[in-house]
């Protein structure tokens, strides 16, 4: 997005903050996979933060995924910036896309965290990116410093929707019980009458589970 890139060119400290202008991308991606990887790696050299501009289809792009993994492994922070509401050359805007940082996790000692829980994502227009991008970059660099080497090396795509959300199974069960009690007490619905208990008994092999 040129609007984001151009807003940063005038900043005196843009290199110090680790921002890389990716204007050459359109030319490089015509050269093939190896050239693209080499170019991405070269652009990251000497940087501390990777800016991911998030549009409608960003999360599904293979090279965005490569860039995110490479960034974490080499110790870069990541700042996500939603740019779907910015007008293109034709004056059109786009729909909001999913956040690619939600689709990656790091792990250490069984503790799984999504990248989106570590690195915030901002909205360029709503959060006044023109004035605040320098602060976002610095915050991302500081957040990266909190990651251990083990976490950086473990970065990978999430295997399931639940992974990284740290569901408390016990709390879910208790909530389910409370919902059943509420329905039984305040409605005319008999939950147990509407459940085929034989299926549970057959699955567990315990005929005495439900009297």
TrEMBL record:
SUPFAM superfamilies assigned: Hypothetical protein MTH538
Membrane-spanning residues: 161-183
Keywords from the UniProt entry: Membrane, Transmembrane, Transmembrane helix
A family per Pfam: ThsB_TIR
Transmembrane found in the keyword field: yes
UniProt domain Thoeris protein ThsB TIR-like: residue ranges: 2-87
Domain of life: Archaea
Protein name: MTH538 TIR-like domain
Organism the protein comes from: Halorientalis persicus
